[in-house]
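User: Sequence recovery, please. Input:
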């Protein structure tokens, strides 16, 4: 017993010492990097920013030139890193991670002057620099439209370490934080649907969902009116400003695949016939025409919107089954436009509002 106890005690001591060494190393590296940024030579930092700006400026705009109705900034503005703070939590005081995708991680930060929360997207090393710059240009162009979170600028991350993150690009995108500010977490449409399964089915909840889908349809219709296609609409690329019961606003995120409709640079993805069923199961939000090599289009976004209605089981709940089936038509030209979808959802919202008023009136007697 004494030997076993001594072995267990020594293991716990070694584990504790490893944790302390790891914490001290991370804190030391973080503090040293931040200290270099704050107290380093301003000329070196200015030179780094100039190098990044010139590198961004040298990248061709490509399909952004095909649009006359949208002004895309060649070089989005740079923010000084000293005006931002990465928020931390946990035993190792790690940076607060909001979400992670294939090409980047999104951290929660705070703007020091106003104290407002921001989301900082750090692109992974595997991401091509041109793709990261293209995404920030689109964010800058759509910043004032209300379709995407407000874009504040780029930040130079060449002197920042991210603990156990293997590698990242030198630029990060700083955007408005959208989500629960109290709990400091993002609310995606996926998480909202998961939480709503515990809610009772009544007219009020149906109205909340109808209003949310109406807002999403309006944002997509506005994007299409600008001559853009989102091309990657799914439950985790849609974020809410609050819970469903609060009638939140909705924003689209992860605009890396946005392209101009009827552009020669629009995305194509041909898949050989024997693998198409595999791709359809893996990416069910995309229309069947995509795997046949046709270009992404506004009708592709309509199909994705219909799949969201189906996945959230809102077609029958909201009484828009015919609309959902129309959006999921196999032939793109048979699908409605997002403008027509907005009109149908507007009618349904008005009907549900009338039903709620009748229920409220009857409950008084």
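Assistant: Recovered sequence (365 residues):
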């Amino acid at each position: 017993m004494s030997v076993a106890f001594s072995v267990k005690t020594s293991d716990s001591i070694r584990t504790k010492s490893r944790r302390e060494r790891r914490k001290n190393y991370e804190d030391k590296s973080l503090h040293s990097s931040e200290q270099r940024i704050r107290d380093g030579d301003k000329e070196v930092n200015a030179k780094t920013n100039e190098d990044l700006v010139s590198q961004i400026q040298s990248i061709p705009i490509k399909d952004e030139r095909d649009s006359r109705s949208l002004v895309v900034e060649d070089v989005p503005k740079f923010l000084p890193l000293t005006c931002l703070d990465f928020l931390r939590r946990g035993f190792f005081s790690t940076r607060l991670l909001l979400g992670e995708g294939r090409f980047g991680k999104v951290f929660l930060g705070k703007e020091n002057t106003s104290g407002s929360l921001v989301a900082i997207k750090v692109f992974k090393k595997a991401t091509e620099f041109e793709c990261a710059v293209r995404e920030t240009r689109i964010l800058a162009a759509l910043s004032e439209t209300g379709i995407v979170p407000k874009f504040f600028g780029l930040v130079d991350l060449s002197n920042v370490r991210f603990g156990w993150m293997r590698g990242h690009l030198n630029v990060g995108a700083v955007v408005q934080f959208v989500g629960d500010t109290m709990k400091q977490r993002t609310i995606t449409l996926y998480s909202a649907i998961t939480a709503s399964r515990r809610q009772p089915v009544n007219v009020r909840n149906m109205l909340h969902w109808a209003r949310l889908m109406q807002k999403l349809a309006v944002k997509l219709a506005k994007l299409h009116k600008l001559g853009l296609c989102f091309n990657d609409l799914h439950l985790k690329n849609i974020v809410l400003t609050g819970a469903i019961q609060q009638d939140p606003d909705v924003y689209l995120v992860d605009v890396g695949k946005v392209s101009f409709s009827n552009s020669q640079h629009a995305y194509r993805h041909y898949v050989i016939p024997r693998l198409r069923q595999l791709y359809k199961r893996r990416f069910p939000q995309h229309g069947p025409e995509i795997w046949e090599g046709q270009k992404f289009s506004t009708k592709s976004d309509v199909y994705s919107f219909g799949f969201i209605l189906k996945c959230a089981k809102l077609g029958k709940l909201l009484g828009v089954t015919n609309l959902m089936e129309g959006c999921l038509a196999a032939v793109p030209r048979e699908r409605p436009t997002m403008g027509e979808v907005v009109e149908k959802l507007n009618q349904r919202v008005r009907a549900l509002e009338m039903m709620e008023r009748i229920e409220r009136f009857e409950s008084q007697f």
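Residues 1-10, 25-49, 59-70 have pLDDT under 50 and may be disordered.
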